[in-house]
Please model this.
Amino acid sequence: MEIKEISQAVIGRLPRYYRYLGDLKDEGVERISSQELSELMKVTASQIRQDFNNFGGFGQQGYGYNVEYLYKEIGKILGLDQTHHFIIIGAGNLGQALGGYLNFERRGFIFSGMFDQNPALIGKEVRGVKVQPMEEMEAFVKNNAVDIAVLTIPKTGAVDVAEKLVSYGIKAIWNFAHVDLNVPEGIQVENVHLSDSLMKLSYNINRYDQLVAENQ
Amino acid sequence: MEIKEISQAVIGRLPRYYRYLGDLKDEGVERISSQELSELMKVTASQIRQDFNNFGGFGQQGYGYNVEYLYKEIGKILGLDQTHHFIIIGAGNLGQALGGYLNFERRGFIFSGMFDQNPALIGKEVRGVKVQPMEEMEAFVKNNAVDIAVLTIPKTGAVDVAEKLVSYGIKAIWNFAHVDLNVPEGIQVENVHLSDSLMKLSYNINRYDQLVAENQ
Model:
């Protein structure tokens, strides 16, 4: 099967467009030019036009974009017109934070199950969802429509748990464990490696300090 | 001042190299070729060599890289040979999760203060750090060496809090609020927009389903 993909760099920018357009819509703005959007988002107007051209362009240039239409269309491209059910593996603070976010639900991501191996957490409720022991995960995934598994467990164990989830039929993993998962083709993985992000910040702090020192 | 930067794409890949090299070191591996590293990390050997060439190349090719040396050198580039103190603004589950990570401390990121406006959370202890009211933030930042402020507060308020932090002297913000901050040049910001990441996953799920349907 040939997979003709739009680059992940473009896809990675869509949620940001979606966020800005949602804010504009909430503020009652009806139309916006690529130039205005460019100034607001601090990207070039040509980048915006190029990105949008991947999806047919979304309407006339001179006149500007219809904010509500553009917001809806990008939402559809992102699959936000559909409902996704997710479970969280790991009921620690991070898992609880993610389970608690109402914003995810507003975008169609429904929190439907939570699992942990720590007996102290079993039975605890997070936004109406009870934490279940890991042994219940298989039956839950097989008996419920679960689209996404969120991994908020330590790196040891994460690879095994991911393999199990895939064998139970999970098609997408949102991975917060600090390890790269090894999944078959067709399983979607999105990593959030928090340490990596912090190290990138650390690099930029130190590099800037060096540059200031060099230029003094 | 001219800022000669290595591309953020390269910087963004460094923490992943660092992670793999740390694992190899822990497993007792002494040398590794770019080819072996390429297979392990699933990036091309030429990408690895190009990335490393930004920093002088880290030693001979034919012989392979010295794992411990490479690990240390990349750590230095990332500023991990230095200590950074961070405070967390927002003592909810996400803030507590970040405050609780011992891994950050192992890399030299010291959790030293936590602030929230919710009276119910004031005085609560997260890994030995007491949650203080927001009013204490200014004095704390001015009287202590704080390198990084972590924002784990809702988007309303985040822009204001970031502005205040910068005016108190904060040079770097690790931003989890779902909004882009507006900071002066020289202030480093690293965003973790969790909703954006989830939407990207959602796109990939739906796009894959479409491709499968189209190819059937």
About this structure: The first helix of chain B runs from residue 8 to 26. Chain B touches chain A through 63 residues (CB under 8 Å). The longest strand of chain B covers residues 109-116.
